[in-house]
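Worked example

This section walks through a single chain of length 250. The input is the sequence exactly as stored; nothing has been trimmed or padded.
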Amino acid sequence: MSLWQGLLVFVAGIWAGTINTVVGSGTLITFPVLIGVGIPPVTANVSNSVGLFPGSLVGAWGYRRELAGQRDRILRMGTASGIGAIAGAVLLLVLPAGAFDAIVPVLIILALLLVIFGKRLTARLAHTRHRPTTEVTPLLWGMTLFTGIYGGYFGAAQGVLLMGIFGVLLAESIQRQNALKNVLSGLVNLVAAIVFVITAHIDWAAAGLIALGSILGGLLGARIGRRLPPPVLRAVIVVVGIAAVVKLLA
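Given that input, the structure is written out below as tokens.
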């Protein structure tokens, strides 16, 4: 990797760390850059996961005020995320590289619809057993597990998926949901990174540059995201999600 290529990877890490903290989808920035500088796809994917998890955890720390009172929820949902991350990381290592490509855009589109129409759906669910609640219901736990599997496998727009699910099933403000999203996404990236360190080949130069950049981006993203009004944050989620779908389809 040349000096200019390394600088490009570092800047991509900053951008991805910022986007991950505010919304998600940072992988759609760093992964193509790693491919562009000549790193093979699977190695790029695992190196990217190792590099991004420090930024996710820094972003979660930046939302520590919004995390107040969510300890029990984090522990219960974190179990689902951790189990899912292990399963997803293993799937990446044993399945064909394109196995999930067809379903990824569909999942992101579904998440965007949940973000856009979440309030209407919430109103309809208000009188059913699936109505939004502050409790970790079996449905919420199961959806978190599924998102963890996806995040461990690839992770692009994992945050968008989580925010769509939270908007329908979790009765919390969007900023508190975003804080929870950052913790769970960071946990998924951390667990997947541990699996990859043990079992896969990692380009440590690339992973290190992304890690440094994502830490800076995580700090920046927390400052930006916490100041966004709920309608603006929802709009950012939708814009980034649409960009993710377009990029994946292209």
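What to look for: The CA atoms of residues 24 and 160 lie 6 Å apart.
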